[in-house]
Each structure stands twice: as structure tokens, then as C-alpha cells.
């Protein structure tokens, strides 16, 4: 296949690969820097944790990229034109495969070096022992040396290069056994690191494995088993009881309950019947259902989640920036000290060259910031994966790290604190208008509206057997109501503010508003351009977990709870009172909500906004962190929020804060431990109290420690 054909097949000027053999975040930046010199490439991103490589530009060539990656000593695990899916590009399933040859080469090199070391220890034949150690070093270390050389050619002091210099230097000054020990320990360290990293890397891979690879499709009355990638929208997919649903779609036939835990983290299955929406990767429990595909594979909710989680991994968290800055000074500084140490004492004080060169080599080993660099991404990736499994999609390490430090939280009312599934409980016709006529107008205007109030009105009209028709010129007035034409006549539906702007509120309307419902009901006025014809009241219920969730949030450190709503003041105050809000803002238009959020942020030094993601988008965007509820099935909510709760469960908020606090604590621990141990060893090595192998051992020890510590965020009660 020609390069051009590959490019076209793999989508618009974006190539994705999976790289194997990256043992340290250092390697990722070496690859990044190196690939930038490829033709027609403008942007490279290499993610160390997932192994994902993304190349974009006018005309990147897959062959050239592959060649470059290989020449640096890494492997490409999957190529862009294999198993490609449109839109989201090819999905690389599963975690990286663990290379068995690494274990073999380590075993052989250990054997060679140990036997050589034993021989030389007993002063037996140096002619045999040295070649034995040397061949062991080559078997176990050629890869390290090669990668290091490649990095050095780009003028980068990467870990592999520093190790190679240390090993070769030790051999030159005659410390053969030491040099051999460093090779074994370093190779072992890398092996153990990639072993332990597998687990947090696989956490994302598991998410991808949720969606089945084949499905049963109904075509012309026949059941065909096809690969999921071949299904297109409109196809009818059959799901047997106990089977995983393969596509996003609407149920055409059959009733069942669906376990959506894989996406939402909800433990209880949800009952579903004809007309209801189901999602790829969820499990169909007891009934057989026929599903009409609405989203092509590659574009399902699960695909969006996977893509967002992968993107989130590659976004840098604040602590990572700190680590990067620190390493940028640390490594050159220690290397500088090492050079001075090797030269000055022998020249100035006439000290032994070998002794000081040895100390300098130990410093080179210590100058690798590996444990430090690894400490943050492991923690963040593990936490993001844990969150995703629990139906909480966090779109970047920064939000995870910062969530627990924000002091104030603002909530939207309808659909967030309340269920938003309000029911009409009273219809009042004014000025001699007919009750059923009023309901018919209301239902007709709302036919195409997505608002929860509209849905409630339609349900009520259906239940009363009122027939209504679709309107013309439907226009929604966000935060106020809706306008539409029926039989050439303009009708209005909405809150008092809407009618007040029309100049239609008089004493009679206000009296009717006051008498119509109790304090916690929402009133919707119905009218034409000349007068108010009547009103409907709707009762909305608090979510069962609202009060408890807000109590828990306070225990997690939220100091100020604010309620924001477009609804009337009475309702807002009654709901706010029930959950114990500190501050209530009512009758806000969407833009005013956003302004209020901005003010709160300035006042408290940060605010988290929790909303429903659809008409709260501006407010979510102006918050320090915007959290959307019930994001399953709502692409808008998934895209606009910083954090999306798949299910409508407020109790996930305190859970999120706990995860955030745990991750933050672990990151701080990891960074502190790595820096302290490094500094201790810099001093020990300079003083001649640390051997080379001790330095490698310490480095490996802390690396493993921070990895295991970081992986604790995979679990949280
Ligand atoms: P909240 O801020 O509580 O989520 P919204 O901003 O969605 O509420 O709406 C605010 C108010 O505007 C509602 O309480 C209702 O009175 C009115 N409203 C908005 N959209 C509609 C609609 N489609 N039909 C009737 N009333 C509406
Ligand atoms: Mg709302």
C-alpha cells in the first residue's frame, strides 16, 4: 500500500501508533523530540503511560515515522491502517504485551555476570572472568546503551545514556563486578517497573475491552453474526439475555433490564422497554431486545468516554509541570557536580583518579529523575481509571488534583438537586378560558422542547387523553420558557419573568400565582401576546440522596454551598432550605448564572459548579471546575464539562472529593520521598559512601515504591 493510501485510510492527517519498549517517561520525550524532525509533521504527542503516539501535520508518512521509532530502539505495536475505525481513529485494544525476551536476556546476562564475578572474586583467571562479565553486560545492556546513544545524538542526557556512561566508566576504571551489578540491577528495575506499570496501564485497556467485538444483526428476517466495526446506523441489533449490548441505540422490541454499571457505576440495573435508549458495553439482563443503532461503532458513548479518558491522561497536571521544571535543573546540576568531582580533587589535591571518577559515576546514576518523573502520572492514571470505572469521567489530571482544594460549590436546582422529573399537579384557567384548551395549547407548544418541564406537561396531557399537535416556529427562551405558533396564533409559555417582559403581569395574575400552588411548586404561565390565559403548577422532588450528599460534601471540606436557578424565588428558597444551602440565587437567566458563578469564584478563590450540562453550559464553563450530571447519552454534557458524572448520582460528588484528596496526598508523598532520597544519595555518593550498585538499588527501590503508592488510587472504598 502506498503512503498516500495509508494516510487516507487512517483519517485526516492524524496517525496513531502504539509504542512498546518505553520504560521511563524520559523515553517518551526523546521520541517526541526525535519525531519532530520527520517530514510533514507539525505535532507529536507521546503518552508514556498508554504508549500512544499521535502524529499530526500536513502529510506525515507512516513509514517514515515507523522507521524513526525503530531506529531509536522501540517497537511499534500496531499500525494505523490496521483495524481502523472511522471518526475516532483506530482503537488499540488492551494493554501493551509484555516482552518475554527481556526476561530471557536478563536471566542470561545475570548468569554470565555472576559467574564472571565469582571467578574474579577468587582471583581466578581474569582472561575468563572479564570476557564473561563483558558478554553479560552486552546481553543485558546493549539496548540501554543503544537507546542512550540515540538520545545523546539529539543532545539529550536521558536515563539510558547516563546509565551507559556509568557502566562503561566503571569497567574502564577496573570495577568490572560493579559495572556488571549495575547492568543487572538496572535491567531488573526496568522489568519490575514495566510489570507494575502494566496494572495501571491495563486499567484503561479494560475499559476498551468492554465493548463486544461481534454482534447479531437482524437483516431480512435473518440473524447474522457480524463484526461490530461493520455495523452502521439504522441496523437492527439483537441482544440476548445476559449478552453485552454492542451498539448505542433505541429499543424497538422487547423489555429487559440493563446493567449500566460499566458506564455509570450504578449498581442497580435499569428497566428498559421500547423507545428507551441503550448503550454499547452495558449488559442486557433478562429479556431479549431488538435495538436500532443510532450511533455508528467508534462514535458510541463508550467510545467517547475512552477517547476522553485517553486524552485526559496526556494532559499535564500541575504537579507534573513542577516535576518537569525540577528535573530540568536537577539532572544537569548533578551531572555538573559529577564532572567537577571527577576532575577537581585529583588535579587540585593530587587524589586518586579512580576513586573520584568512581564517585562521579555514582552521581551519574543518581542524576536520573526516574522515580520522580514516574510518581505523578502513575497516580493520576490510576485515579482517572478508577473514576471512569465508577462512572465519573475526569477530563484531566489538573481537575483531579484541584477538586479537593476548591472551597465553594454551586448547584443548579432543576435536574440536579431535584430529579427534574416534575409532574403537573394543578391546571388553573383564567378569564373564562377552557381548562382542556389551556392544556392542549401548553402541550402543543412544548411538543419539541427538551426541557424537563415540557416533558412533564406532555406526560400529563397524554395521561388526560388530550390530543395536541406540533407547533410551527417553536423557539425556546432559555431560562424563561418557550414561544410557538398554533394555527397562525402566537402563544407563550414560561415563568413570570417572561410574561413580565411582555407587560402582561397584573394583580390578577399575581393573585393566581400565589393561590395556585404551595411554595415548592413551579408555576408555568400560558398566554398569547395579549393576555395570560392560565397557569400550570408542577411539583418537583428532591433527589433522594441530595440532603445526604450535601452533608457529606461539607464533611469533605466544602465550606460554602450555593443554589442557582432560573426558577422563581419561593421554590428556590424552599428547596435551598431543605438541603441547607448557604446562599440562594433565583430567577437567573443562563448568562446570569454564569456571571454569578464567576463572582463566586472570585469571592471564594474557586468554585465548583454542578449542573445538568445542557442549559447550564455557560455556568459550567465559568467555574473553576464544571461538573455535569447525568452525562450518559448527552454528548453536550460530556463535551462541555470538566468532570462528568455518568449517572444522576449526587453521592458521587463526595466520593470524587475523596479520590481527589487521596491522589493529591499520594502525589505529594511520592514527590517528597523521591527528592529526599535523591538528595541523601547525592551527599553519600559525593562523600564516597555510596557504591554504584547501591545507587541503582535505591533508584529502583523508590521507583517501585512510588508506583505501588500511586496505584493505591486504583482503589478507594
Ligand atoms: P433551572 O435553573 O432550575 O435548571 P431553567 O434555567 O431550565 O431552570 O429554567 C428556569 C425557569 O424557566 C423554569 O423554572 C421555568 O419556569 C422556565 N422555563 C424554562 N424553559 C421552559 C419551558 N420549555 N417550558 C416552560 N417553562 C420553562
Ligand atoms: Mg437545570
Describe the model.
The protein is an alpha+beta fold and 717 residues long. It folds into four domains: 3-97, Alpha-Beta Plaits (2-Layer Sandwich); 101-204 and 311-380 and 664-715, no CATH class; 214-299, Calcium-transporting ATPase, cytoplasmic transduction domain A; 420-542, Calcium-transporting ATPase, cytoplasmic domain N (3-Layer(aba) Sandwich). 51% of the residues lie in helices and 18% in strands. It contains 25 helices and 26 strands. Strands 14-26-25-24-15-22-23 form a seven-stranded mixed beta sheet, with helices on both faces. It has a six-stranded antiparallel beta sheet with strand order 6-5-7-13-8-11, with no helix packed on it. Strand 2 (43-46) and strand 3 form a beta hairpin. The radius of gyration is 32 Å and the shape is elongated. The model is unreliable at 1-11 and 79-97 (pLDDT under 50). The structure holds adenosine-5'-diphosphate (ADP) and magnesium ion. Magnesium ion binds next to helix 14.
Amino acid at each position: 500500500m502506498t503512503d498516500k493510501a495509508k494516510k487516507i485510510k487512517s483519517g485526516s492527517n492524524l496517525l496513531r501508533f502504539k509504542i512498546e519498549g518505553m520504560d521511563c517517561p524520559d523515553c517518551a520525550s526523546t521520541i517526541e523530540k526525535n519525531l519532530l524532525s520527520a517530514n510533514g509533521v507539525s505535532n507529536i504527542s507521546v503518552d508514556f503511560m498508554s504508549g500512544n503516539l499521535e502524529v499530526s501535520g500536513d502529510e506525515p508518512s507512516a513509514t517514515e515515522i515507523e522507521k524513526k521509532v525503530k531506529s531509536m530502539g522501540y517497537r511499534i505495536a500496531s499500525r494505523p491502517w490496521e483495524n481502523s475505525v472511522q471518526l475516532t481513529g483506530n482503537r488499540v485494544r488492551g494493554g501493551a504485551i509484555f516482552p518475554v525476551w527481556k526476561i530471557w536476556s536478563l536471566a542470561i546476562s545475570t548468569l554470565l555476570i555472576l559467574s564472571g564475578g565469582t571467578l574474579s572474586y577468587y582471583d581466578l583467571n581474569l582472561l575468563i572472568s572479564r570476557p564473561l562479565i563483558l558478554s553479560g553486560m552486552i546481553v543485558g545492556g546493549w539496548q540501554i546503551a543503544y537507546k542512550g546513544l540515540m538520545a545523546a545524538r539529539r543532545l539529550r542526557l536521558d536515563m539510558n545514556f547516563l546509565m551507559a556512561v556509568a557502566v562503561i566508566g566503571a569497567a574502564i576504571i577496573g570495577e568490572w563486578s560493579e559495572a556488571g551489578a549495575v547492568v543487572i540491577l538496572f535491567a531488573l528495575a526496568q522489568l519490575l517497573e514495566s510489570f507494575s506499570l502494566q496494572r495501571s496501564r491495563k486499567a484503561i485497556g479494560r475499559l476498551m475491552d468492554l465493548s463486544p467485538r461481534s454482534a447479531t444483526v437482524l437483516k431480512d428476517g435473518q440473524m447474522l453474526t457480524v463484526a461490530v466495526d461493520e455495523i452502521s446506523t439504522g441496523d437492527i441489533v439483537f441482544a440476548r439475555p445476559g449478552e453485552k449490548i454492542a451498539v448505542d441505540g433505541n429499543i424497538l422490541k422487547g423489555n429487559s433490564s440493563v446493567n449500566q454499571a460499566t458506564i455509570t457505576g450504578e449498581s442497580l440495573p435499569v428497566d428498559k422497554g421500547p423507545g428507551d435508549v441503550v448503550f454499547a458495553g452495558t449488559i442486557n439482563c433478562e429479556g431479549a431486545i431488538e435495538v436500532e443503532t443510532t450511533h455508528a461503532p467508534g462514535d458510541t458513548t463508550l467510545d467517547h468516554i475512552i477517547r476522553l479518558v485517553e486524552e485526559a491522561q496526556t494532559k499535564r497536571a500541575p504537579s507534573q509541570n513542577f516535576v518537569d521544571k525540577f528535573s530540568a535543573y536537577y539532572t544537569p546540576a548533578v551531572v555538573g557536580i559529577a564532572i567537577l568531582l571527577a576532575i577537581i580533587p585529583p588535579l587540585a589535591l593530587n587524589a586518586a583518579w579512580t576513586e573520584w571518577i568512581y564517585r562521579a559515576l555514582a552521581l551519574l546514576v543518581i542524576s536520573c529523575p526516574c522515580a520522580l518523573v514516574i510518581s505523578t502520572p502513575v497516580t493520576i492514571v490510576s485515579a482517572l481509571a478508577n473514576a471512569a470505572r465508577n462512572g465519573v469521567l475526569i477530563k484531566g489530571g489538573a481537575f483531579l488534583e484541584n477538586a479537593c482544594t476548591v472551597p465553594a460549590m454551586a448547584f443548579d436546582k432543576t435536574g440536579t438537586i431535584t430529579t427534574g422529573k416534575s409532574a403537573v399537579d394543578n391546571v388553573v384557567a383564567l378569564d373564562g378560558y377552557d381548562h382542556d384548551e389551556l392544556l392542549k395549547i401548553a402541550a402543543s407548544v412544548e411538543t419539541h422542547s427538551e426541557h424537563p418541564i415540557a416533558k412533564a406537561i406532555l406526560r400529563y396531557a397524554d395521561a388526560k387523553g388530550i390530543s395536541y399537535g406540533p407547533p410551527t416556529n417553536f423557539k425556546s427562551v432559555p431560562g424563561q420558557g418557550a414561544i410557538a405558533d398554533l394555527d397562525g396564533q402566537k402563544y407563550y409559555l414560561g415563568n413570570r419573568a417572561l410574561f413580565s417582559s411582555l407587560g402582561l403581569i397584573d394583580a390578577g395574575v399575581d393573585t393566581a400565582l400565589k393561590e395556585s400552588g404551595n411554595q415548592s411548586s413551579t408555576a408555568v404561565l400560558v398566554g398569547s401576546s395579549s393576555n395570560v390565559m392560565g397557569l400550570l403548577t408542577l411539583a418537583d422532588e428532591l433527589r433522594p440522596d441530595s440532603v445526604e450528599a450535601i452533608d457529606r460534601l461539607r464533611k469533605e471540606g466544602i465550606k460554602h454551598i450555593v443554589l442557582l436557578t432560573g426558577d422563581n424565588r419561593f421554590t428556590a428558597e424552599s428547596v435551598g432550605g431543605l438541603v441547607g444551602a448557604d446562599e440562594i440565587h433565583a430567577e437567573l437567566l443562563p448568562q446570569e448564572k454564569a456571571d454569578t458563578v464567576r463572582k463566586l469564584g472570585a469571592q471564594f478563590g474557586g468554585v465548583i459548579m454542578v449542573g445538568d450540562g445542557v442549559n447550564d453550559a455557560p455556568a459550567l464553563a465559568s467555574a473553576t471546575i464544571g461538573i455535569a450530571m447525568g452525562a450518559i447519552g448527552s454528548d453536550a454534557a460530556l463535551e462541555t464539562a470538566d468532570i462528568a458524572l455518568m449517572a444522576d448520582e449526587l453521592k458521587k460528588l463526595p466520593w470524587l472529593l475523596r479520590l481527589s484528596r487521596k491522589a493529591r496526598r499520594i502525589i505529594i508523598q511520592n514527590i517528597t520521598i523521591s527528592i529526599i532520597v535523591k538528595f541523601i544519595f547525592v551527599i553519600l555518593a559525593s562523600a564516597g559512601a555510596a557504591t554504584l550498585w547501591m545507587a541503582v538499588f535505591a533508584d529502583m527501590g523508590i521507583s517501585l515504591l512510588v508506583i505501588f503508592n500511586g496505584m493505591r488510587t486504583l482503589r478507594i472504598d
